[in-house]
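Hey team,

Filing this mostly as a record. A colleague (T.K.) asked me to run one chain through the structure pipeline before their review meeting, and I want the input and output archived in the tracker in case anyone asks later how it was produced. No errors, nothing strange. Just documentation.

Input sequence:
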Amino acid sequence: MSTETLSSLNTNTLIGHTLHRGTAWHYRAEEQGKEPNHYPGPVPPEDVARRLFGWEALALPVAVERPADILTMTHRGADGMPRQWVQIEGRQAIARSDEDDGHVLGVFTDAYEAHQYTEYLLTAVTNILDDSLSISSAGVLRKGAVAWVEVSVPESITTPEGVEFRPNLLATTALDGSLATTYKCTVTDVVCDNTRAAALREEGQELKIRHLRHSRLRLADARSALNIVHGLADAFAAEVAELCRIDVDARIWDRFLDSWVPLTGFDGEPLPPRKRRLAEAKRETLAAAYVHDKRVAPWARTAHAVLQAVNTFEHHHSPASTPRPDRNMMRAVTGAYERLDRRAWEVLERVLAEAR
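Output structure:
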């Protein structure tokens, strides 16, 4: 079950530029306590430091409970028998400095180094802010195990094809071992608030720093990686223009569906009844979006519409074992949607090539 309740999202995330973008899906004034978590303009860096990152990640020794006698015991176990705590060499637990219950975010070898959120996310980002860039959102998830700071332009951009988007720089890291510290460019589709990627034919511009000792953040590298947000608008607009020029007729769309959501297995045999029903339902939802959904239909018969249909399905219709908005945030943070975009484009490229 997700730990991201409405209460936690209204206190552990900060959302900026609502004057231009409106409120986030989770907005509940009654859940925000004394301070709102939405800002008409940019999110002040000092608020991120005070409200989200006002604690440090501590490295603590790890011990196991073992049998003992009356001379070596440190305590009695649940059964009342003598026990002792024995420290495990070469292991450390990462915990929050502000929690009295000792909540552990992760357990690692001594080679692991926790990247403090204030230094690696907030300071790294504020060092490259200028008049055209500001903090648009920030937050912590999983009780502090994952965090991000997003930088973007305050107002959205509309391409000649009518696609409204917003370029962002996402700085994110984790203290549970699930993420390296990452600085990457993303794009938000304003109509549906979906996360998209640019440069579909290659890995996106990003900088990764592993949580290892001596793997330190160099400001010059961070500045080089982060400053590309200025050029992201032109790159994404050019990509949209190219995708909108690629014709996808009914025959190509059907072949794409057959490749993206096949009704047969790898051996060519029909899917089992349950899997076939799920595949047919997914195909129907994708087809309906392609023709009727306002997030897709305006660009029907183009490659852009195909990618929009896939991306919109995954954001809003695909089955989710955790609350959908929480899952969507984590997929954006981890880059799952970027990989989805690239995979869908690769499938469509192959279908187009086979049809020539």
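Quick notes for T.K.: The chain is about 35% helix and 25% strand. The two ends are 47 Å apart (CA to CA).
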